[in-house]
RNA sequence: GUGGCUAUAGCUCAGUAGGUUAGAGCGCUAGAUUGUGGUUCUGGAGGUCGUGGGUUCGAGACCCUCUAGCCACCCCA
């Protein structure tokens, strides 16, 4: 029988799970310190909750779940005859798997509006699913770690989220650049260049500036029917690398001025704080154009070939589609899989992050195996992860097993040790070895 | 959704103009080694060459089909 798992999904080995837990633990710890509380939502949402929230592209990438029972009986014959998948699908699938954590969160806020107080600060670490074609750093099942606050327009939260990014990546040991931009600045620039209607086209093109260069961006703008004259105006503005000089160049535009002031206020909050990573204004940054309305963020590793490790932004009206208008919010997300891949590639996992027990006990013969069993239960009672090799005998085999399962120590039990109530405790990596009583071992490993 | 590349042992890959019994390294296993592993040496097991078809006296190699994986684009974490 041929075995396999669906494309874009992965199994995790014990050591990988240990490392992932370490990583999630660091992220979660920072979230908690900043006063965010965890929530969870189901894997499955009503398809109607999900469709139409991520654009046409997003709808295509949604995993739909076939109805139970005699679903064909209730299927939309008409739509089937017309080969109209968009209309047919809802008649056979009323549920879908969540595509991100933000939309389910919006639904959650609306449904539980009586149980939560605003501003509501939540974090959520759960897997999401996208029927995307897998490639490097991209999977069909992957974890997102979201922190959002809804119910406040305070720009202090933008600053706070930048700090969270800074703290997490510092704790993980990945140097990053945190970039910030503003949606209204982008639409303002488009308006300034006389192509206000096409601001999204413009933004998607300049987002690729560092990848395809000015020439490539101009070509793409041309393909999107942005006139050359407008392109010139835009590139003139893109030359400004800091907020002050940009402000001087576009004084009369209130949308632009407002967005610049907002970003300046965010930087003012951060002023005087010691950040471990670089935070910079980047006029070419674009993301989440569908629903972000204010500041937008993105994090990239300083020296790793990997897409963004996270991003986010402010949205004025996330819950509006679910019937509760004018609830502002801001949040960011961490791309756990990519962060893991970077940690792995750069060997940043600490040596103490191991899958196996603290100690494996090896015995020579039946008598010492009996003794070792008493020892291992005593160590376990003290709350220390310990294991006993099931057969007494050759040490070579037992050493190899101890190393393979990731045990930190091996403890040898023989006739001499049994008579003295001791074990020979050896650190597998350093090779240091000492004969200790069980009590001493417990004290040492605790 | 579009395009490109790949598919040979558990893993990473060789396999020369189509020509006998398809190889290596790593891993696995047994021993050298009856109280000390990750070093070394020796032996052993393990392959319908992804699937189905075609060309040929002869196909792992050439052609087509399908499937799977990888990479890039779109988009995105």
Detailed description of the structure:
The protein is of the alpha+beta class and 446 residues long. It has 2 domains: 14-62 and 99-345, 2-Layer Sandwich (BirA Bifunctional Protein, domain 2), CATH 3.30.930.10; 359-445, Anticodon-binding domain (Rossmann fold, 3-Layer(aba) Sandwich). It contains 18 helices and 16 strands. The chain has helices spanning 14-33, 47-50, 55-61, 77-81, 85-92, 102-111, 156-172, 183-192, 199-206, 209-223, 228-238, 243-249, 254-270, 336-345, 366-381, 395-404, 415-420, 438-445, and strands at 37-38, 44-46, 64-65, 95-97, 120-129, 141-150, 176-182, 278-281, 295-301, 310-315, 329-335, 359-363, 386-388, 409-413, 422-427, 433-437. An 8-stranded mixed sheet has the order 1-5-6-11-10-9-7-8. It is globular and about 90 Å long. The two termini are 46 Å apart. The mean pLDDT is 90. It binds one RNA strand of 77 nucleotides through residues 4, 7, 55, 57-58, 60-61, 100, 128, 130, 132-139, 142-144, 287, 307-311, 333-339, 362, 364, 393-403, 410, 412, 414-416, 424, 426, 428-429, 431, 433.
Beta-strand proportion: 15-25%
Total strand count, please? 16
CATH class placement of the largest domain? Alpha Beta
Structural class: alpha+beta
In total, how many domains does the architecture comprise?
2
Give the structure's gist in a few sentences:
The protein has 446 residues and is of the alpha+beta class. Helices cover 42% and strands 19% of the residues.
